[in-house]
Write a structure and sequence with these properties.
two-stranded antiparallel ribbon, 7-stranded mixed sheet, alpha+beta
């Protein structure tokens, strides 16, 4: 079911509209969970978002993909200097409202519809609520706002279909990290080269993974030519070259399994059991020929194939804990 959202992003409005995304920290500055940041993970492809900044709604956006872990965008500059460097990036295709809508002018209509808790604006005055980022709203509020202006519905529905795919956005983020590594004078040439090769599962990283893993954890395939060395904690999210090259931070996966794991549609328990995202179509899993591998979720009393229940080492479990918490789509 489509959900509707309202984002207050005065500080980062220009950057997020231009680059077609939303970005938030994962927690508040004190480390506490934040409902408005958690909402980034609750948004789904096809959801609609109203963009509010400087007392105006100028854009409506279509969520293009699930949020995923990503460094704070470099274009933010000094904005949000107190935010953690790692957060949630939500790809959104923005379409202009013409003319912009001033919510205060519609307060008689939308005020009674605002949530009692976690409202993006005050029902009494129409002023934005401080500290609110991405807030859930009823569809009726979205419809009232959009009916007050013109929006190109075709563009909103189809725009960004190619550019805003997970792979494309991920590659852009990885490119930025790689550029930073190339100019890092604290690294030796050997470490720099190995770290960059690790981005694509090559070189030292692959050799290190092959010392730990022998086959695809999902399919059992052992042919090296059919396997990708995939990071458990994403390459872009690693904090050091050591993490990027650590064999315990890798799995050997077939291309389909690599895509599902990298995107967070599957993960693994410490015991080796497969965990499948409840937001991934189980029918698609079956059509990929991988359905029987999610043995517990599909009703098997025990793993039908022995490699599906082989546990991980303590070193691997630390990385898998990160993957389940920060990559896996809940």
């Amino acid at each position: 079911m489509r959900q509707y959202w309202w984002v207050n992003h005065k500080q980062t409005f220009n950057q997020e509209i231009e680059h077609q995304y939303l970005w938030s920290p994962k927690t508040s500055a004190n480390g506490a969970r934040n409902r408005f940041y958690d909402n980034m993970r609750a948004a789904s492809p096809g959801d609609l978002v109203l963009s509010y900044a400087n007392q105006l709604i100028r854009y409506v956006g279509r969520v293009a993909d699930f949020a995923f872990t990503a460094p704070k965008p470099s274009e933010f500059g000094a904005t949000g200097s107190y935010w953690n460097n790692e957060g949630w990036l939500l790809p959104v295709f923005w379409t202009r409202l013409d003319p912009p809508v001033r919510p205060k002018n519609l307060l008689a209509l939308i005020g009674p519809l605002l949530p009692e808790k976690y409202s993006p604006i005050r029902a009494s005055s129409g002023d934005g609520n401080q500290g609110v980022y991405l807030a859930a709203i009823p569809r009726e509020i979205h419809d009232i706002v959009v009916a007050s202006a013109h929006v190109d519905e075709v563009q909103l529905r189809t725009g960004g279909a190619n550019r805003l795919t997970f792979r494309n956005v991920k590659d852009e983020l990885d490119d930025r990290v790689e550029a930073s590594i190339r100019t890092d004078l604290t690294l030796s040439d050997t470490v720099r080269t190995a770290t960059i090769q690790a981005r694509r599962g090559q070189g030292t990283f692959r050799s290190n993974v092959e010392k730990v893993e022998r086959s695809c954890r999902l399919t059992g395939i052992t042919n090296p030519a059919l396997l990708i060395a995939s990071h458990i904690r994403p390459w872009r999210s690693c904090e050091t070259p050591t993490q990027r090259l650590d064999g315990a931070n890798g799995l050997l996966l077939t291309p389909d399994a690599d895509l599902l794991f990298d995107r967070g549609f599957i993960s693994f328990e410490d015991s080796g059991e497969v965990r499948v995202s409840p937001r991934f179509d189980q029918g698609d899993l079956r059509r990929l020929g991988l359905g029987e591998h999610a043995w517990k979720q599909l009703g098997f009393s025990e793993a039908p194939m022995p490699w599906l229940a082989q546990g991980f080492s303590d070193s691997q479990r630390a990385y898998l804990n990160y993957h389940r918490a920060q990559v896996y789509v809940t």
